[in-house]
Amino acid sequence: MGVSKIASVDVIPKINEQFPSDDTLFLKFASSDLDSDGKEKALIEGVAKIHKKSDQKYNYVAKIEVPEGFGEIGAVIVELKENSTERFIDTIFIKNLGGSTIEPGETDGLSGMIRRIYTYLVVLFAIIRLVLESVTRCIKSLFRAPPVQQGSTTTGALGSPLNANCSTSETPVTFSCNSWIQPKNLIPDQRRIFFSTKSYLPGKTPAGLLKLRKEDLANLRGEKADGTTDKNERKAFERIYDYDVYNDLGDPDIDPEWTRPVLGGSDEYPYPRRCRTGRPHTTLDRSSEKRVEGDFYVPRDEAFSEVKQKMFPPNAGKKNKLGTNPFPNFTEVDLMFRDGIEIPPSSHDILKFNIIATLNSSDQPAPPSVQPDIIQPDSTKLKFPPPEALKRDKFLWLSDGEFARQTLAGLNPYCIQLVKSWPLKSELNPEDYGPQESGFTTELVQKLIGISITVEEAIAQKKLFVLDYHDILMQYVEKVRSIRWTTLYGSRTLFFLNSDDTLEPLAIELTRPPMDGKPQWKKVYTPSIDHATDIWLWRLAKAHVLAHDSCVHQLVVHWLRTHCCMEPYAIALNRQLSTMHPIYRLLHPHFRFNMRINANAREILINAGGIIESTFSARGYCMEFSSLVYKKEWQFDTQALPEDLIRRGMAERDDKAPHGLKLAIKDYPFANDGLILWEALVEWMTEYVNHYYPDDKAIKNDKELEAWWNEIKEKGHPDKKNEAGWPTLETPKDLIQIVSTIAWVGCGHHSAVNFIQYAHAGYFPSRPSIARINMPTEDFDIIPEKFINNPESVMLEAFPSIAQASTVAQTMLILSAHSPDEEYIGKKIEPAWAEDPMIAKAFDKFKMKLDKLEKTIDQRNENSELKNRRGVGLVPYEVLKPTSGFGVTGKGVPYSVST
Ligand SMILES: [Fe+2]
User: Fold this and answer.
1) How far is the CA of 774 from the centre of ligand 1 (A)?
2) Cα 698 to middle of ligand 1, angstroms
3) From the record, what ranges are coiled-coil (predicted)?
4) Does 197 map to a domain?
5) Residue 537 to residue 776: CA distance in whole angstroms
6) Ligand 1 center to residue 601 CA distance, Å?
7) Residues near 36 by Cβ (< 8 Å), separated by ≥ 6?
8) Number of domains in the chain
9) pLDDT value of position 359
10) For the purposes of burial, counting CB atoms within 10 Å of the CB of 593, is it exposed (0-12), middle (13-18) or buried (19 or more)?
11) Residue 77: predicted pLDDT
12) Contact by Cβ (8 Å): 243, 716
């Protein structure tokens, strides 16, 4: 005797979208079991019709008859009517008819009373049968030999395999789809397959689902029935994941000035891969891909939600030549955040987007810090909300202590490093770049640190730290200086660690390589409180270093190491791990919207003539520069937080220290908060991985996992595949380290360097994105008259122009804002995790640790002894607090890199 079931399908309409009342979904259900001949059982078919609807959800239901012995339903194939619009399938839930939410009398002609009696009887019999069959099957399973399958293990103690065996055809089944499906006429040769929330390693896949598992992966790789791969230009509705080089940043057909090298695929410009779009090549440069007016392709499920899409400008200009006029005085700078300024001529189209109005129009009220409109209605004024740092102390930008503190608790805490050897020396070829010796001589530094400690002692006691941008920037100085209204130096900034754990800047060294027939030029600047000229030179030197730090932060620490490097992991995940794979389900939240935000970046931020090139010191060489750093420095293993700290000398292994690490600077807010988050992540991932992989054999037998890891190296980062830093994947411990590193980059690393951009860099004197003119003393010891008579105007000329400053402030504001539908780490359990009690328990522990982190951060920020976190007028360090409201809050850790 078969069983009647109800398949309930929740579909989320787009905003203001209405589906026709006779709309239908065609469903086909697959058994997890094979028939007695070892073949797939015939699919059960059902037609789901609209049952209920609201603004947020349509509920469709289908009544299906499941024949006796069919086994558990493990997959569902969904089809739409020909020529209908796409649908977002949220969840499919299958349960016995007795448990239906359908109102009596809605699905058949029985009268209400008869219908209810019938339903109660069905439910009663179903429950009795369910209990009996479950008990019988479980008892049998304990005495049955394990199925002979690739990679199978005999364990049942950890829950999942045993649970699978205990499932029956009466058990309710949930399919958490969260995916777009297209009408058959658009994608005729692919079936949309969804698997239930139970996760299976390949070797433990129920036999009836093996072919479907392979079919779905082949679809995602664009493999066709004839064995070829679809290499056509991708269309927005497709869901094919493939790789390509960064060859669509330039636009040579429009203007030869916008020709850019291909990043990736060469020794000169190695780079991670992006998602392939297959657009035609440009006419003038056959290695480059044409740019298009609309959105660049990403697979359909990678697109932003409609709520998130509203947070980004719909029609921001893709290239703008920005005006070069400097602010006339600092009063005018302050007006940006008070009464507003006139919109500058030749400004960027992004300024037309009113992000604050968008935040205010959301269902939730915007936080007070972002209440004012950027652009006043019916006005030509441009007005920004005061950034947090400016609100708290308008003179903070002049503080040397804050300049140093920012390296530990600012938006770029990733570059400060311990001075491990002395004297500092360049590794560049002296024939090209001049003498290698640093201007930081022992004599000079001894004078700067005083007589209480020698330089040797300071090194031995780990008292000297440096921001060293000398070698990486020197290689671009001559190129960058060929562009008008920008300049560049190699730079080093030396810091001394005081006894109260604060850093104090000792000196800045700026170096220009030999060029234009002139020899290398270098000069050391030191803080001064005595002489006016020295005070102003120091301020200018700081502006240059801050511009360098802005470049490295934006192009390397933020873009390259998080946004860019995560994309190939996401592509490989979708191509090689089935959606029912436990590691797919573990990592998938960490890739939400990553490909879309990266495609947006290629459209308007990192492209030739885009926002980054227009506003950062390296200008047209910004992306080349990020390729250089990828080549010289990037390794997978050092992306893990502990390894990153050790690499920079900011920590050393110590089993007795918290987290097994002794920090070189005890009050290092980013490291202290980050290590708690890192450790919580590792513990969660350890329990998760060990649950599915009890031993090394389980790892070795997982061919999907092996293919995923190999593809990350071979196709995602092929230019680095033979270099050091890739862990082997042979044990559960290896896997824990790999997934923890990826997850950390997606959540902790990105959040730390993204969500306080506006707070600290919105007011550009604190952190200019560009320094536009050379130091007034370059090549000469004579102080120019203009500088003597009006140093403020020289400073403002060096700072970003009005058009640049407002473009950067607007961009930072957008990037620093959380969307109302942000998914914060640990806040909500994924349906597939909740399915398994062991995983659900591990997640609860993870969540509790994150809740504790919130409180720990609050306590730390109240502790006056932690001077790098607390002080008069300082912005408290909250950026790694896991949760947040929406908008610009300076805290909150989403799972993924999506802004
Ligand atoms: Fe970001």
Assistant:
1) 30
2) 36
3) 843-870
4) yes
5) 8
6) 10
7) none
8) 1
9) 77
10) buried
11) 98
12) yes
- The Cα 384–Cα 341 span in angstroms is 10
The radius of gyration of the chain's CA atoms, rounded to the nearest angstrom, is 30
Q: Are 285 and 217 in contact (CB under 8 A)?
A: no
How far apart CA 310 and CA 304 sit, in angstroms, is 9
Task: Give the C-alpha separation, 223 to 853, whole Å.
Answer: 45
539 CA from centroid of ligand 1 (Å): 29
Instruction: Identify the band that residue 537 occupies on the pLDDT scale cut at 50, 70 and 90.
Output: very high
33 C-alpha vs ligand 1 centroid, how far in Å?
Answer: 45
Q: Are 96 and 41 in contact (CB under 8 A)?
A: no
CA 658 to centroid of ligand 1, rounded, Å: 29
Q: Which domain holds residue 176?
A: 3-207
User: Which tokens hold the place of 542?
Assistant: 């700081």
435-450 mean pLDDT: 98
Q: What are the pLDDT digits (tens) for 67-111?
A: 999 999 999 999 999 889 999 999 999 999 864 444 433 434 444
Q: How far is the CA of 781 from the centre of ligand 1 (A)?
A: 42
Distance 743 CA to ligand 1 centre (A): 15
Q: What is the mean pLDDT of residues 190-197?
A: 97
* Residue at 420 is within a domain: no
Q: Does residue 791 surpass a pLDDT of 80?
A: yes
Residue 502: the pLDDT is 98
Distance CA 20, CA 85 (A): 11
Q: In what order do the strands lie in the sheet with 24-31?
A: 173-181, 87-96, 3-12, 58-66, 44-53, 24-31, 73-80, 192-195
Q: What is the whole-number distance in angstroms between the Cα of residue 534 and the centre of ligand 1?
A: 37
| 36 Cα to the center of ligand 1, angstroms | 53
Residue that the structure tokens 């959380």 belong to: 818
Compute the distance from residue 582 Cα to the ligand 1 centre, in Å.
27
Centre of ligand 1 to C-alpha 234, Å, is 25
The arithmetic mean of pLDDT across residues 401-427, rounded, is 98
Checking DSSP bridges between strand 503-512 and strand 490-497, what pairing results, if any? antiparallel
Q: Is residue 872 part of a domain?
A: no
Does 528 score more than 50 pLDDT?
yes
Dihedral sign computed on CA atoms, order 602, 608, 609, 611: positive
Q: How far is the CA of 78 from the centre of ligand 1 (A)?
A: 35
518 CA to centre of own chain: 44
Distance (angstroms) between ligand 1 centre and the Cα of 617 equals 19
For residue 594, report the distance from its CA to the centre of ligand 1, in Å: 9
CA 562 to ligand 1 center in whole angstroms: 8
78: in domain: yes
pLDDT band (50, 70, 90) for residue 647:
very high
Tell me the mean pLDDT in the region 239-257.
Answer: 95
Q: How far is the CA of 808 from the centre of ligand 1 (A)?
A: 14
Distance separating alpha carbons of residues 379 and 357, to the nearest angstrom: 14
3-class DSSP state for residue 507?
Answer: strand
Do you find a cis peptide bond into 582, omega within 30 degrees of 0? no
Ligand 1 center–CA 181 separation, angstroms: 29
CA of 544 to the centre of ligand 1 (A): 24
Q: What is the pLDDT, as a whole number, of residue 121?
A: 58
637, 727 Cβ separation under 8 angstroms: yes
Q: Give the pLDDT band (50/70/90) at residue 363.
A: low
Q: Which amino acid is at 543?
A: A
Centre of ligand 1 from the C-alpha of residue 753, in Å:
8
Determine the distance separating the centroid of ligand 1 and the alpha carbon of 556, expressed in angstroms.
Answer: 11
For residue 548, pLDDT over 50 is answered with yes
166 pLDDT more than 50: no
Percent of the chain topping pLDDT 90:
83
> What CATH number should be reported for the domain holding residue 120?
2.60.60.20
Token couple for 794? 């020289």
Bridge partners, 243 (sequence order)? 275
Q: Ligand 1 centroid vs 893 CA: distance in angstroms? A: 12
